[in-house]
């Protein structure tokens, strides 16, 4: 229901197919008075653009967002902010040869069954192209968070079996290290290994999965709501709506299954800046409400469904067939890389919404 | 926002504190004509009741639900169904000694900060007591699913490092095997090991975490909505709103990070009953929409926060203190066990809602 | 959708049929820290109770609300407030004789067509009995408004062709005058005429319609949201959801059709207390947002559908029949009288919600 | 909340200011398979365009809608439909001289107070320009209704004290008669009088109010939901969100206040085509649910706030001032005329949403 909208007070609605004229997003509920300009958005968009380096898809989108409403004299007015991003590099003709095939790992089968019609040019609405709109909206949410002193970040924590080590990295420097790495991994050594893995994977016509970690710092106590709108529940909802995600965890996550209570419980103590906990297995939430500790969690991404190898499948009519990507198709060996700014955007949107809702809780 | 409600068309609202007079749930949007009686609900409630066997908390609630509205001559009328469950075994006096302490792993700190007031009798609204209402509502959702031929189930997949093996178990017999096991694990061998682990953990005054797997069978193609209301996103939202959860995954989950595309992609083929896939790494969803394959996923639970060991903490005033559960406190060494029917309930609620929304998608 | 809920942040969900065991309401989103007790609610309920004087229905309900959750040590905690009102004086047997007849002016035909089933005991869910829950919830919203200095009131402005004159009545004394009148009309002379009209109408087995005027004073500038959530749109939504309503107007209302712009425009001037307008044809809203002037509007109620005269109708099977109320049926000759506290309640709910939402609009 | 969205399943979100680059609407939840093209929308837009005849504002917009997404091969796909309408004839410079004045009858005062900033070019977001987006979306809703056999219409029922008589007009010919009249009144005689009134009003630099009546035919029984989402409540919400509206009524409306029950009750009888009522004071709804009789109601519009006469006012700084429209300003003497297609659009949106929701009510 209203499946193309996200959020309660700070609410977005996205639209557009991967190979249509344009895509866009309407942001409703952004507080008035926030300084915004197109470059804030375009800088964020640049980070998720394919083709920016050899480690992601060669489709070069060079997205330029246009703000059509809701900003006056450089500031938000409280009116809906409409952002439009033209689809410049869309060549739908190459999808003609595969339009009658069920694409392994893709959504055209389920869309066809659900709607009786599918815009087969690219992934249509199911394409990762839609996520550019999340990034554009997330850039505005992030400005609102920064105005409130909150910092957000995300990075590749794992690719295949390569795991980034961050124990010695200062939290405040993670974000800049991340975007210096072509594979968005702030651990230099792991970053090199991942680059090699991407190259090997690409050469084999294959793809590989990965895990993104996200962190929010300086989040005040009290964000998130009890029972069904717990902060981690809303984060899970947000992250599992990103294409290609298969898992979400907060704090200790799945590791908690093997822990004991005395190890897992984070003990309270007092710092100059207030109440803290000695460990952070909770990941910054207690009872669904932020505790003031860093919000930290992870999102698992499957290997890209589009690979350069032939795969057995069916036609939409039910006959056996071989699915092969058209010659010259773009191919993104690890979809998790480009998803880093998307995870950051979704994190920003959830926190901005929770920050506004918190204003309504007390007399 | 409206944080005590869940669902869109098939919508529930729960209320009540663990040590108040009663708890309850209002179900709005259940289709008319469904046969319902109190025993349907009470049977489900019996499964999550603590005290039913030595492996869960000795508080014996003996919940009896009363249906106060929405059912006439044994059938739902389309009006809201109000269910009330009295709190019989509530002794709030024992919470007096700890009312001024921050409880490690619990939510009283964050509630106090957010609301400026906390009902310290039991966990108040943050108590697992609230989940009885989810189970009551889930029992009705489950009847609606059964009417549509859909089966749902959940069980302990892992406790500590003990993992259940289910490769040789027929999917249709899992549910009955589950509820024959005192620890809700359908693998007899693992069940025995888990029982021993629970006893050992209890003897040590400790607690242990676990993982619940959930499955839905015979789900038609087309449930779930694109972009922000993907079926897996709504499942994640539902599951991560259950107390003590730390992670969610669907299909291959976090394992997908180490897989390649050619291994992960589920290839389409045709069976007598229609289109299927040779593997099910997707977990029954493609592009956020059910594919007709079994919906399968997992939820991670942290070890119970309440343990019988003393722990350092702070008073609500900020002074150092020792937190110790009052003598004779109930103690549930593995909260995941009782969460099995809760996971089943949330799965039912998500699917019932998606089944109704699907009716609106085509001309 | 979620048709038994009202509001966004300050949100209520009601349940219960007129002749079931009980009715009730869950209030979710009331800010924490508000002092509440059952007598606040019972005093409000007393005002709408039938049988309180000979001018309304003789069914004497003597409603006593029980607060089951959400209040601790006399204050709201931010948790959902569940209120239950038992149905004491419910005798469903008398509805047996008319259960297979379409009741003129009533909803049993449309409910039967929509749901395929109808709880024919009283009006089931369509009964005015449901409005007791609105009044209970409204009493809490009203306390929140009073905490913020806002005053609300409603009264009979017109019954049949008798129109109350209020030009010489001080706004602040209207509410107490209203509830001194058995027909809830603050104009003593009109009140007497209305009492006579009610008696005559009752003697004839007839019913009569009426118009309720509502006023809110000391409403700050800025409540209500542009475009689709204008304050007057939400008020209209609230009022037209009350049973038996046929019309809503704000400020000049339908009279505005015959006015010219120079007469209708309210001109701004400055008072000690700030910007005001010389007239208030707008009714306290400009562009859907409160202007600081009194919010004033009216709601039209049809004559009670239940009359003591025989009426031609159909059976549910489609045969011609005569509908007659069972001997000894309760009969409320002017439903608008009892609706006064209901209009006051809905006004309070809309303003409380708008007051909270306003907190989210600026940086 | 989400104040720029309307609807539940068939949901729209509008954006754009009167003098920005463009305005637009995103329609989410339109069922797949509906045939749509830009001319459907442009024909509807042409009806509300100012400047189409001398009786409305001379600003000639010549709106051309562009469909940017959600339609593939001429049919809706179930994806969000994004429609963009460029602002061609926008000259914001003329608003400079009045930017620091509170405009009588306008919203700039309340916007400034609420948001701290106001896009003073035209009415910004508060401008009637926004309603073009409602008309565009309504055109799609109307196609969906037509697919289901439902007809909708609206027309000027009253202007000043001139009242259209429609007793002898066939319901099916009303719509074509309406749009043949320059003042959208299907009664030829009243239409002439209204044209004279508009000319006189314009010559005097004045404006005049009006009443629009709306009708929906062949609406099946069962649309609308009990209690808070009654069909008339949602219609009232929809209509009172249109700029310049002051009142709403359904069926007998405010007249019902002076009627008796035996006159007001609509008696059931049986026709070949099913159950009907002998009169239709209810306006096609019983208990908030459509009864199969024509849906009929009225909306009151105040006289246009912009008049050509000088008016006393304040500056935004609080000083006394005279407000005068800039020379050459466009001036629409009766805003109700152009609102006819807007009322039709809102009626269509409410019914389309209710028609979809009805699918979820029964097993």
UniProtKB/TrEMBL annotation, chains A, B, C, D:
Q: Which GO terms of type biological process are on file?
A: amino acid biosynthetic process; aromatic amino acid family biosynthetic process; chorismate biosynthetic process
Q: Name one Pfam family in it.
A: Chorismate_synt
Residue sites binding NADP(+) per the record: 48
Pathway listed for it? Metabolic intermediate biosynthesis; chorismate biosynthesis; chorismate from D-erythrose 4-phosphate and phosphoenolpyruvate: step 7/7
- This enzyme's EC code(s): 4.2.3.5
Keywords per UniProt? Amino-acid biosynthesis, Aromatic amino acid biosynthesis, FAD, Flavoprotein, FMN, Lyase, NADP
Q: Which residues bind FMN?
A: 125-127, 287, 302-306, 330
Q: What cellular component terms from Gene Ontology apply here?
A: cytosol
Which GO terms fall under molecular function for this chain's record?
chorismate synthase activity; FMN binding
**Among its keywords, does the record have Cell membrane?**
no
Q: InterPro entries per the record?
A: Chorismate_synth, Chorismate_synth_AroC_sf, Chorismate_synthase_CS
Q: Does the keyword Amino-acid biosynthesis apply?
A: yes
Which note does the record give on the cofactor? Reduced FMN (FMNH(2)).
Q: Which reaction does it catalyse?
A: 5-O-(1-carboxyvinyl)-3-phosphoshikimate = chorismate + phosphate
Enzyme class, first EC level, given as a word: lyase
Q: Which cofactor does it need?
A: FMNH2
| Biological function | This reaction introduces a second double bond into the aromatic ring system.
Q: Which HAMAP family match?
A: Chorismate_synth
Family from the record: Belongs to the chorismate synthase family.
Subunit structure and binding partners: Homotetramer.
Q: What is this protein called?
A: Chorismate synthase
- Its encoding gene is what? aroC
